[in-house]
Amino acid sequence: VHHFTIALDDSENLSDLSNYVYQRLSVVASDHNLGDSWPGKERCEMLIKMAGGLFIWARLAIDYVGKPMSIGQDRKLDTIISQQSKGTRSIQMKMDELYTTVLAACDWDDEDFVEGYHLVVGAIIAAKQPLSKSALVDILDDRTGAVQGILSILSPMFSMPSTNDGPIHLLHLTLHDFLTSDHIQSAPYFIDEVKHSHYLGLQCLRILICLLKDGFPGLGYSIYWDQDEYGHIPTIPVSSSIIYACQYWLDHAIHDIDILPDEETFSLLIELSPYLISWVELTSAIGKFPALDKMR
User: Fold this and answer.
1) Residue 197 burial (10 A CB sphere; 0-12, 13-18, 19+)
2) Residues 118-157: pLDDT tens digits?
3) Which residue, of 24, 62, 86, 261, is most buried by count of CB atoms within 10 Å of its CB?
4) Alpha helix locations (H) across the chain?
5) Mean pLDDT to the nearest integer, 81-91
6) What count of other Cβ atoms lies within 10 Å of the Cβ of residue 28?
7) How far does Cα 188 stand from its chain's mean position?
8) Is the pLDDT reported for residue 295 higher than 80?
9) What mean pLDDT comes out for the span 19-30?
């Protein structure tokens, strides 16, 4: 693996960024019928200057301004440009200001949006590996369309594939740090990572209990093994949500091995206990067996 460092103020990087901003904004103008001259050279150059060589900043800003099926492109662009600062700021600070702008535009008085935001974004932040839309729907037992709705509203903040089965990534690692920072605990968009991780653990346990209690095709193979010979482990096709539940329920449900689980978690662990052999078989069959240091 070779690491390359690109200076943000490198002339070639700045030239590439300038071309990127002009090209992307011309697409926004075309998509929203804003005219060939929109948004004008002055505003383009101001946006380029504010980006400070950061492509990820420019991408988020333009994705926010030009989000499909949205209105108010001038107002959104002017809001971003109005935050121009003369002082030197870190990458995290520059990104945090832009995250705040994007999130402030959401309707935090809408209870359904707030509930959906914390359900979906909380799961994305707390997940041990990136989840797809379909996996999020299954794990969160989403029957109201919250996953699709929230991801549509907040699409500039995520990198999403064109299919429902591809993993969803945060636009940048600074987004995780921003949303979980103690400095924004009073903000409606603050994410309590420990709380949401625990909820994911409960949902994973519920998935496994529901799956295993009535028996699952292909399991039970270990009873035919000869104790003196290596036993064959079959391949069992399952969904990505089941793979995730098998691999990570322990990490989510038992945050600290020195602290007894809460009543709800304990109850689900008792319910799962008769099917632990089935869980071991299924997890082995999909090749995702986790460390068992949290199991006693």
Assistant:
1) buried
2) 999 999 999 999 999 999 999 999 999 999 999 999 999 9
3) 62
4) 11-31, 41-51, 55-65, 73-81, 91-104, 111-126, 133-139, 146-153, 173-179, 193-212, 240-253, 263-272, 276-285
5) 76
6) 19
7) 18
8) no
9) 97
Round to whole Å and give the CA distance between 248 and 246: 6
Dist. CA 179–CA 177, nearest whole Å: 6
Mean pLDDT of 237-249: 95
Tokens standing for residue 159:
């990198």
The CA-atom distances, in angstroms, between 137 and each of 14, 246, 269, 294 are 40, 17, 23, 27
Please say whether the beta carbons of 141 and 203 come within 8 A. yes
Backbone angles phi, psi at 238, to 5 degrees: -140, 165
Residue 240 has pLDDT above 80, yes or no: yes
- Burial label for 67, CB within 10 Å (0-12, 13-18, 19+), is buried
What is the per-residue pLDDT for 254?
A: 84
Tell me the C-alpha distance between 77 and 64, whole Å.
9
Per-position DSSP letters for 143-188, written without gaps between them = -SSHHHHHHHHTGGGEE--SSTTSBPEES-HHHHHHHT-GGGTTST
Contacts for 47-50 with beta carbons within 8 Å, 24 or more apart? 47/21, 47/77, 47/80, 47/81, 48/14, 48/17, 48/18, 48/21, 49/84, 50/80, 50/81, 50/83, 50/84
Do the Cβ atoms of 201 and 123 come closer than 8 Å? no
- Three-state DSSP at 132 gives strand
